[in-house]
Amino acid sequence: MDKDSKPAGKKPYPAARNGNQNAKPGEKRSFSHTGEKRSFGKPGERTGDKRFGKPAGKPGERSFRPRQEGDRPKPYGHKPDAKPIVKKPVDPNAPSSLSRKVALEIFQDVIRKDAYAALSLDERMKNTNLSQLDKRFCASIVYRTIENLIRIDYALSFFLKDAEALEPTVRDILRISACQLLFHDRIPENAVVDEAVKLTRGAGLEGLTGLTNAVLRSLIRGKEEIKWPAEDEGAKYLSIMYSVPLWLAERLLEAYGPEMAKEICAFRSDAHYTVIRPNLMKYSDEAFEALLQKKVWEVEKGAAPHAFRVRMASEIARDADYLAGNFSIQGESSMLAAQALDVKRGMQVLDCCAAPGGKTAYLAESMAGTGRVYAWDVHEHRVTLIKAMMHRLHLENVRPIVRDAAVLKDELVSTMDAVLLDAPCSGLGVMDNKPDIKYRATKESVKELTDLQEKLLNTCCQYVKRNGFLVYSTCSVLPEENEEQVKKFLASHPDFTLAPLPASFDEKFKAHYTDGGLQLLPHRDGVEGFFIARMKRVK
After folding, report:
1. Which pLDDT value is given to residue 314?
2. Which pTM does this prediction carry?
């Protein structure tokens, strides 16, 4: 290689800027930009070079100057006696900011987009990394805010001039935060306010953070001074204190009287359990109870035959025995409605509004896989649910089909031993478990439903054979959907008569069976709010 050539791939050395390329061996090198040689001096000697601070003073003398812009701050701990910063311990049980953000999104899904709370909660939870603690807290905020929404809005009205004109997201942040202040005892008030401000800022509403802060702090100071309605104010009292629409409070007072109406409105179930029942083709109650004892769940017998209430069962629909078709998840009142038909082996049975299939399965299993259970629903995607249930439980005697039960099928007239019509209804019997239901129902929607129920009864009754049975049921507590509907039907159909409940029904339920049917009430009967009427065709 030529001595003047440079190695390939390497950058040439830059020309020295201080003349050090001419330094003689043993001569001190300097780092001056001008080429002037400067040494650092002898050890311990101050050079006076201003590039390294203020010129040195006399030996032993220290010089100081005020800190100037551009100076680097001295690192923490530069003084021997510096006190360390003590951080407040983080509460491992404190809910995260994300849990409140997700709760706000779910609440807005329900209030702004008319979504179902349970469905929105499930969907949102799938797409977040919340801990189990945060998931429980999130669900608690959502459900408590919805079930107490009218009362929360009433409380906030004392600290807001015009809530309706407020930016919707800020109003919803105030609602879920007020819920925490009024109905969650263990959450620090300052934490609620701070998190509400964060939510407001995170929503891009920086200009309204002051309002959020002020309203919530006013609520903290003044919540004991809120003037709530008195009990003698009737429907207004029920509406605000128990968060039911005013029209519904008035209707319940009219139907049940003050004491019973208050109990219906006030009821909040604190029984955190899931109701399941065995596949009746595989297990007796005793054998199924023995199976459950092998699990880590807490188990007790329910009020309905074959019903078991289980606690401490996380994601029960993923349990191996559920997936194997050994049991079903079903409400107790729903079981009672199917039980009211009192089906026998080999029968031809029609379940008119069958989806998602719980009562269909109960009927098919009760007949030990014999006969036929025709399961109709007007929506194809809901019939798909029935088919999935069939395959999971291995039921061969179910025939699901997409069909509008309000349209008569002439070829099926007088062909059924038993017909179950669990009619579309307001759902107000389960508003303690599904609090968003009470805000969906209106006077107008209930009138539309009663018209549909009447049409369904008049159509589906024609499929019942002579001496066959028709069971009409709803999950409502409104008389116009229930006993009034049955009395009207019996008055216009003399070929039907009200029949007694089967012997398998508990006496405590039979005690409430009247000439209009059985009205089940959650606070009194310990099951979902439901109505059941059993009628027999006698001509």
Report:
1. 80
2. 0.81
